[in-house]
């Protein structure tokens, strides 16, 4: 556990704001100066069989994990109690869905990493930035899954909504309380630390595509295709373009 003091202040007061500022300003910089690099750099043309397996499983798992984290960190326990959800019901549901989602996320990511390492053209298109991103993302997922299993399945349970969640909200209230994190289990602290590192790296990786949506396609004008049929065209076809 993190001892309260200088180290706790650096980890749970200074680092969160460094990660948050880097996350926001990094995306602004990336959008202004690297619009053409704002992409996943799709490699589907190189290989599609493993991609069809790993990508849906990973994205399903990560979306469920994201919803679970938003609910657990941002929604106070008093709100779920007011909605008629008991603490036991919330705990069982969160652990069950979190474990399944974590396994799906880790399994899908394993397939994607295996594909990227074993398929020649995909591996050749992998940058050092991609390798760092995959390493940190894997570490975050493994630590989160390990913390859930160790505390709530193998152990006697841990109520993170009494410590980690209030600390997380206190950061946004501009009144960070590092003492709340000092008593959290080591795996939860490591998971939180690795997540902060991931958010600091996020704007400079292919993960930026998660913050965009092709909304412009809804209002984009139709693409007009002209027929080469002699009967429909206004001019005779050029030599070599006659229909056979």
Can you walk me through this structure?
There is one protein chain. The chain has 244 residues and is mainly alpha-helical. Helices cover 63% and strands 0% of the residues. It contains nine helices and no strands. It has helices at residues 6-33, 49-74, 77-82, 87-118, 120-124, 128-154, 164-172, 178-182, 186-201. It is elongated.
The run of helices and strands is HHHHHHHHH
Overall mean confidence score, pLDDT: 88
The class by helix and strand makeup works out as: mainly alpha
Distance between the termini: 77 Å
> What is the overall shape?
elongated
Q: How would you sum up the major sheet? A: none
Task: Kindly state the percentage of residues in helix.
Answer: 55-70%
Total number of β-strand segments?
0
Our count of helices gives: 9
CA gyration radius, whole angstroms: 24 Å
Report strand %: under 5%
Defining traits:
single chain; 244 residues; mainly alpha; 63% helix; elongated
């Amino acid at each position: 556990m993190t001892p309260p003091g200088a180290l706790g202040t650096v980890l749970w007061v200074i680092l969160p704001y460094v990660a948050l500022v880097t996350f926001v300003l990094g995306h602004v910089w990336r959008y202004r100066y690297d619009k053409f690099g704002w992409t996943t750099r799709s490699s589907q043309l190189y290989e599609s069989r493993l991609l069809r397996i790993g990508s849906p499983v990973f994205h399903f798992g990560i979306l469920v994990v994201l919803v679970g984290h938003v609910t657990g960190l941002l929604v106070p326990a008093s709100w779920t109690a007011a909605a008629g959800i008991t603490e036991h019901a919330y705990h069982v549901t969160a652990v069950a869905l979190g474990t399944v989602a974590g396994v799906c996320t880790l399994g899908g990511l394993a397939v994607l990493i295996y594909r990227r390492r074993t398929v020649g053209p995909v591996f050749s298109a992998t940058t050092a930035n991609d390798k760092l991103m995959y390493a940190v993302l894997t570490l975050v997922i493994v630590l989160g899954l390990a913390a859930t299993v160790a505390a709530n399945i193998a152990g006697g349970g841990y109520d993170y909504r009494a410590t980690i969640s209030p600390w997380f909200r206190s950061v946004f209230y501009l009144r960070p309380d590092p003492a709340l994190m000092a008593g959290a289990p080591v795996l939860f602290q490591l998971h939180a630390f690795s997540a902060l590192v991931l958010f600091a790296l996020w704007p400079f990786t292919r993960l930026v595509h998660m913050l965009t949506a092709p909304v412009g396609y809804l209002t984009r004008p139709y693409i007009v295709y002209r027929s080469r049929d002699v009967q429909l065209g206004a001019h005779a076809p050029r030599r070599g373009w006659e229909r056979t």
